Every structure is written in C-alpha cells, then in structure tokens.
C-alpha cells in the first residue's frame, strides 16, 4: 500500500511540476512589454474676438468668438481675466465658472469639435461696477491666443506585448506488473515541459 501511495505522489508531483512550469512561462510572457517613444508635432494657435454687444448701467452683453488656427480640437477650454471686477452672470454656447476675476468657459457636448480655421461664439450677460474694460489676453486649452500658430512637440508611447506558447506533454508508459494506469510497482510518470 505504501508503495502505491508513493507512486501516486510521484505522479502528482510530476504533473504539478509540469503545470507550475507552464503557468510560470505563461505569466512571464504576459508581463513582457516593450515600450518605444514616438514624437508627435501639433500646431497650436487661436484668435479671440471679444465684443461688447450691449451695455447699460451695471450690466452688459458680450460675444467671445474663438477661432482655431492650429490642428483640429475635439474639446476646448477658454480662459480670460477681467481687470475691473466684472462678473459673468449667464452664458450660452459653453459652460462657465468664475473664480475671482478669472473666467473659464468649456465647450458643451454639441460644440466641442473645432476644426482648423473653424470658429465658435459663446455669448454672455455680465455685470460691472465703475468701468467695463475688455479683457486683453485669452488662453485656449492653456495656450495664449496670439493670432498665430506655434508648434508644440509632444511625446507618445506605444506598447508591444510578446506572447509565448507553452506546450505540456505527459507520457505514461506501461510497466510490468501494472496495467499502465499507475497501479504497478514502478512510477509511470515521465512528464516534461517543452517551450517553443
């Protein structure tokens, strides 16, 4: 009985070793990643035309026309700073927030794409006290709108995953005194792992 138990342990140990080796090779193959860098060049540029359309005691209306002079955009954020404490009260053609004198306008779902040479015009009603000078500097997606384009180099990376195929072969041979099923007096497991 103890001889038979030893045979089964060796048989199971051989299969376990083959399984463990196959799992290890598969896990290592899944984690091998080669990364390479690639440069991309994007032209960035914009022009903003700020126009007060109406003004009354303490309030005003204005349009802000943004023209994209650079590469096409899939979304945009415009930022400017008022110099005399003006406030945006209501805006259309974008979503706005104001912190102190800095106004930030983000595209809506329907006007986020801005092709090269294309324009969009958010408008707003605001309030003022004392004076209402027009803002003099604007930023589109963090880049100053100067009316011309500049190049910006960005870096992107690509990933490649290597895959290794593992084949596990277990050979069982007949032995004298047994039926080839591991019931005989000698171990029948001759397992091996082959990597390709």
TrEMBL record:
Keyword terms of this UniProt record: Signal
The keyword Transport is annotated on this UniProt entry: no
Superkingdom of source: Bacteria
Keyword Membrane assigned: no
GO process terms (BP): carbohydrate metabolic process
Cross-referenced SMART domains: CBD_II (SM00637)
Name the record gives this protein: Cellulose binding domain-containing protein
The organism's taxonomic lineage, starting at the top: Bacteria, Bacillati, Actinomycetota, Actinomycetes, Pseudonocardiales
């Amino acid at each position: 009985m103890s001889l038979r138990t030893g045979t089964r342990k060796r048989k199971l140990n051989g299969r376990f070793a083959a399984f463990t080796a196959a799992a290890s090779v598969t896990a290592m193959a899944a984690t091998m990643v080669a990364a390479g860098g690639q440069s991309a060049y994007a032209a960035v540029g914009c022009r903003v035309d700020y126009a007060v359309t109406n003004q009354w005691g303490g309030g005003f209306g204005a349009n802000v026309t943004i023209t994209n002079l650079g590469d096409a955009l899939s979304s945009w954020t415009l930022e400017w700073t008022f110099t005399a404490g003006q406030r945006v009260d209501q805006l259309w053609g974008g979503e706005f927030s104001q912190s102190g004198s800095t106004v930030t306008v983000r595209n809506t779902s329907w006007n986020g794409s801005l092709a090269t040479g294309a324009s969009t015009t958010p408008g707003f009603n605001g309030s003022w006290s004392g004076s209402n000078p027009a803002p003099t500097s604007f930023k589109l997606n963090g880049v100053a709108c100067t009316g011309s384009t500049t190049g910006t180099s960005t870096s992107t990376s690509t990933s490649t995953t290597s895959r290794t195929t593992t084949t596990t072969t277990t050979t069982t041979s007949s032995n004298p005194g047994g039926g080839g099923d591991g019931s005989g007096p000698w171990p029948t497991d001759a397992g091996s792992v082959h990597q390709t």
